[in-house]
Write a structure and sequence with these properties.
By secondary structure, this protein is an alpha/beta fold. It is built from 13 helices and six strands.
Amino acid sequence: MSLNQVEMVTLNQLIDQNHNYRKFKELWDLTEVKKNLEEIEITNESNFKGYGIFRLFLCLLIQFMEDLSDRELEESLKTNLTSKWFCQFGLTDSTPNYSLFSKVRSRIGTKRLATIFNILRDQLKAKGYMNEIFTFIDASHLISKATLWKERDEAIKEKYEKLNNEILPKFTKDKQANFGCKGGNKFWYGFKKHASVDMQSGMINKVAITKASLIDSKGMKHVTPTSGAVYGDKGYCDKNAKAAAAKRNLHLAAMKKNNMIGKNKDLDKWYCKLRSPYERVFSKTNHRVRYQGIQKNQFTAFMESIAHNFKRMVVLDKLYPPPIIN
């Protein structure tokens, strides 16, 4: 006669002690974030079907850290133990349906998320990860739609010779997306992401979404640090960038164009070498947007930046662990 053996385990016991998600919770204090989010539940008298706004925010963090769609996030929460644990679900708890996540993003909103981003950034500054001494600024393209054939045909029917930024809003659903150009021959339709990266830690300090047609130097004012030196490419050597830097008393170290007076090739090569390690922050991001409008894509940019900073802090903690004091 054999007896069935039952072993009782908790979800916490099933998660690897060295898993990055454990590090996230050790290194980041989300108390103030939770308090800020819970104001939504007090105001709207809603706990989002019993899940709570904070747990659902953790779900969104998983989504952007792992680059998941809403349906993929739903599946991850159902089947992935680490996702369940990170989002404070039990082994047998029901998890959200994919349709709830868009409502959560809408309820949190871009303005409140900006506050949360700043709360988390202040933690970086308090811990010495971000000092705003040397900052790298750049802009990257965000593609909204692959083709505009239907819109072009409609414009032709209305007797317009070509589809350009002036007449685009008359034919497109997304009134804020337009054409951008880089280097005089590279065009795209969508938006532009401007960001500043702290050169001490490689973490994102500020991020802003604008129309694609806004030139880099005019977008610089949205992401300038509060102090220090700012490094940029040739797109930041004009009067707009100089004015944005002067407003905050910053030192602007931008590469000059070949036809500019005072061009120093050796200095520009040094600037290029200094900036190159931080280019990866922009090159590795997804350049296709899921949503229409600047506001929704700004929400995405904030979440992607939070996810990037979370991951970067874990890496830095492994490379430069705090000293052990006896």
